[in-house]
Amino acid sequence: MIMRNIASAIAIVISLSAPALAQKAEIEANNAKWIEMFNKGDFSGIASLYSADAIALPPGSAMVQGRPAIEVMWKSMAEQVTDPKLTTVDVKPLGSSAAREIGTFILKTKGSTPQEVTGKYVVVWEKVADDWKLATDIWNDGK
């Protein structure tokens, strides 16, 4: 009886963690696509990773809403920074069609004396059809 209860508890934990692991893997794959597109200058590709009504909240700036505006925002950012790296720290499922990601980033400023900038971010991801899309994206510098 005790062994059956333990086995049931293990099965429940595994069934609950499997979707979270799948979400994290898909989100990390999207982050890799984001970096690849940024490095290629494909800002419309980056915008396609966002939901149609997504909101970005860049530091020290107004909110940016919708794919066209997000595309312009990232194109403008690319004039100032390069070589972004993202590290997912945690993904928390918010049901089967949403997740919250917390992570860190490193990038380099452009110019005569480039500097490394580190920071953190929070993204709310939304499942749209079969794809995870960034729905809300906020970041700032510092640890």
From TrEMBL:
- Where does the chain cross the membrane? none
- On whether Transport is a keyword of this UniProt record, the answer is no
Cite the DUF4440 domain residue spans from the record: 27-134
Q: Which domain of life is it from?
A: Bacteria
Keyword set, alphabetical order: Signal
Q: Which organism is it from?
A: Bradyrhizobium cajani
Q: Name one Pfam family in it.
A: DUF4440
Signal peptide position in this chain? 1-22
Name it. Answer: DUF4440 domain-containing protein
